[in-house]
């Protein structure tokens, strides 16, 4: 299974990031709307990606935006209907800057998968959290 990787920055303009696009284009975000903004943006991003896509999300602080993006990934990472493709195998990797090494690193990922235990169930699927060493 070949995975396509896309590099996405959380918020444009906060820090220079080695990315191809940004989840949120505004550089100023209202705190009380941050999680909604990133949630909606991640839903749109997922809808525009193919199955087997690894979304490398470069986070830049603003915890609410990160949590909103993760929640959206968990909500819509895959197509889980029994009549369709039961899992998308999409992965969301969170990349963060390590000040000690001067590099971006990932240690946490979320992967969409499916594990049917009863074929009469209309929908199934889950997102698992992975800690990488």
Shape: globular
Rg estimate, integer Å: 15 Å
In angstroms, what separates the terminal alpha carbons? Answer: 22 Å
Strand and helix order: EEHEHEEE
How many β strands by DSSP?
6
User: Would you identify the regions where 5 or more consecutive residues have pLDDT less than 50?
Assistant: 79-85
Helix residue percentage: 10-25%
Largest sheet: 6 strands, mixed
Structure annotation, total helices: 2
Task: Walk me through the structure.
This protein is of the alpha/beta class. Helix content is 21%, strand content 32%. The protein is built from 2 helices and 6 strands; from the N terminus they run ββαβαβββ. The protein has helices at 34-47, 63-76; strands at 4-11, 21-24, 53-58, 91-98, 103-113, 126-131. A 6-stranded mixed sheet has the order 2-1-3-4-5-6. The model is unreliable at 79-85 (pLDDT under 50).
SSE layout and pairing:
Blueprint: E1 4-11, E2 21-24, H1 34-47, E3 53-58, H2 63-76, E4 91-98, E5 103-113, E6 126-131
Parallel strand pairs: 1-2, 1-3, 3-4
Antiparallel strand pairs: 4-5, 5-6
Summarize the structure.
This protein has two helices and six strands. It has helices at 34-47, 63-76, and strands spanning 4-11, 21-24, 53-58, 91-98, 103-113, 126-131.
